[in-house]
Amino acid sequence: MKDLKKQIISYREQVFLCVFVLFVYIILFGNFRKESIDDPYVLSWIYNYLKFKITMSINFGVDAGQPWSGISLFGMTQAYIYGPILNTFGFTPNTAYFVSTILVIIASILWLKIFIHFGINKKVAVTGICLMLLLEPFIFSSNSARSESLTFFLATLSFYLFINKIYIISAILAFVAFETHPMGMISGFYILGYSIAFWNKIEDKKKVLGLLILGGIVGISYYLVLHWNYLIALNQLITKMVWVDNSFLASNTLFKYFFMQRFYRHIPEFVIILISLGIIIRNKEYSNNIPIMKFILCVVIASFIIGRSQETYMIYYYPVLFLLLLIAVESINARKILIVCIILLVIPQYSYVFYLYHDYDLNKFTQQIKQELPDDKLPVMGNPNSWYALHDQDRQFRAYTSKVVNLEWKEFYIIQNEEFFKWTGHTKAWDEINTMYPSEIISSFEVNGERINIRHYSENIKY
Length: 463
Known about the structure:
By secondary structure, the chain is α/β, with parallel strands linked by helices. Helices cover 60% and strands 7% of the residues. A hairpin with a 2-residue loop joins strand 4 (439-447) and strand 5 (450-458). Helix 8 runs antiparallel to helix 9 (167-180), helix 9 (167-180) packs parallel to helix 11 and helix 10 (186-197) runs antiparallel to helix 15.
């Protein structure tokens, strides 16, 4: 007991951070965004696959019905892992968020072990992981049904197994990560970067390569078994995925995250990284950490090779960038300074987010929609959150988040959410439909402080 108390006192800084991280995650759980367009997208794919064996997206997006949409080419692993839990506890965002949070935390613990493997002091590594978990990419992924959390976990586990010389399973998991989401290829760049950086420490390189190839064959077979019928669409998707932006920098996740976000809120993080790099150069710490510097450089270069800028993908790169911070902090014994900087950075942002969204009640919204819609099985078009109310009903549903494509309905309802239009600017479907059909409001109500109208559209309605 005395030894435990001494250990807690010795790690009191880290214990405080763990408690603070837990507090932040509890407070922001389900309160990070009011309406995530992507969450019902992903949950609809999983639901339709598990219930109807439909792999294409049928409810959302301009790609609905296209061979590359939904989980036709990527994401069945997520359906198999999230699906049983969602079936048991309900297809709600909070159920998915719980799974995502667990995966992010486990992956972060693996990165803690990786940091220690790289020679980072244990206390510094624990501090770094706690601070990393406070940053937006990790909070976002924990409050998301998207596949980043699972992909991040699988890619991290693959890399962790590689550095622990479990090569076959590492290679298999790299392809499982890729099947979950194309960004799973980052595990290959982790492994490549580590191999380049620590080339001299890899014994029997031919054997290692052989084991990786064997695992790769199994991993490729796993992918082919799941997606054989849709491989013809893979080339189309790759064309859409890589280098889709006109600007070289704009197609880079790091650049987009630090310099292209609202209020430029991530620039202070970039400044902290720059200061850390300056400390490393000034104190010549790079000479003592050449392999780590090589590894970091390889992963940064990978961000340009992969392209496909998306700020949510920052979760794959931040652990590697955090190595710079930890090397700098350790060299000048500045843990407390880093702790204060990160906490002061995130508290105002998350306080504002909580203030905006903490009183939004999705359950109240879905119950009101179910109550107000006539029970006549007519198709419905609505905002993404409407899916939660309608997915288990015997009627067709389409979200109005994109241009109307091949809409053959002659009579249907639209759940008109003006607040959603103002927030997202998604008015294409709305504008197009209003030129096609006459309509009338059959119900109007207020929920969560916003006005919702249910409009009936039909060719038979007379103005």
